[in-house]
């Protein structure tokens, strides 16, 4: 694998760990959701770290900031999808409390990264 600067960003490192947590959570969902909600949730969570990496590789600050904003938007999208999973009772309150704490921390870090990218 490449040894690039984005891998040194704490927010990117956290987003990679977050992917693992989300994959483990969605592994418990019903099989009939594999190509629907599970797929959508997994795409959203992977998009977070992917856009952080792509943004960090951009030399144009405006482009960099835009990719960080997309990463944060993917996190918001994921929040909606997890709310749907909660309503469908695919996950319990305790599981979501842990995920929610991680999401809030990621959101804060992404917001800080965006505000520092000028």
Question: What does the model show?
Answer:
By secondary structure, the chain is an all-alpha fold. Helices cover 75% and strands 0% of the residues. It has a single domain (7-14, 34-116), classed as de novo design (two linked rop proteins) (Up-down Bundle). It is elongated, with a radius of gyration of 15 Å. The two termini are 29 Å apart.
Instruction: Quickly name the level 1 CATH class.
Output: Mainly Alpha
Taking all Cα atoms into account, the compactness measure Rg is 15 Å
> Largest sheet at a glance?
none
Q: Please report the distance between the alpha carbons of the first and last residues.
A: 29 Å
| SS content category | mainly alpha
CATH architecture term: Up-down Bundle
- Residue-averaged pLDDT, rounded? 96
The fraction of residues in strands falls at under 5%
- Given the structure, what is the number of helices? 4
Strand tally is: 0
Uncertain segments are: none
CATH superfamily: 23S rRNA-intervening sequence
Record the SSE blueprint.
Blueprint (H helix, E strand, L loop, with lengths): L9 H17 L10 H21 L3 H27 L5 H24 L2
Helix pairs in contact: 1-2, 1-4, 2-3, 3-4
What attributes characterize this protein structure?
118 residues; de novo design (two linked rop proteins)
Question: Could you provide a short overview of the structure?
Answer:
The protein is an all-alpha fold and 118 residues long. The chain has helices spanning 10-26, 37-57, 61-87, 93-116. The longest helix has 27 residues, at 61-87.
């Amino acid at each position: 694998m490449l040894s690039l600067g984005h891998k040194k960003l704490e927010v990117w490192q956290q987003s990679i760990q977050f992917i693992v947590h989300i994959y483990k959570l969605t592994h418990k969902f019903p099989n009939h959701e594999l190509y629907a909600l599970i797929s959508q949730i997994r795409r959203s969570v992977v998009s977070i770290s992917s856009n952080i990496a792509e943004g960090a590789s951009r030399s144009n600050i405006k482009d960099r900031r835009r990719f960080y904003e997309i990463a944060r938007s993917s996190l918001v999208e994921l929040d909606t999808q997890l709310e749907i999973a909660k309503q469908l009772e695919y996950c319990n309150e305790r599981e979501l409390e842990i995920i929610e704490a991680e999401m809030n921390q990621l959101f804060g870090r992404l917001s800080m990264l965006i505000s520092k990218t000028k």
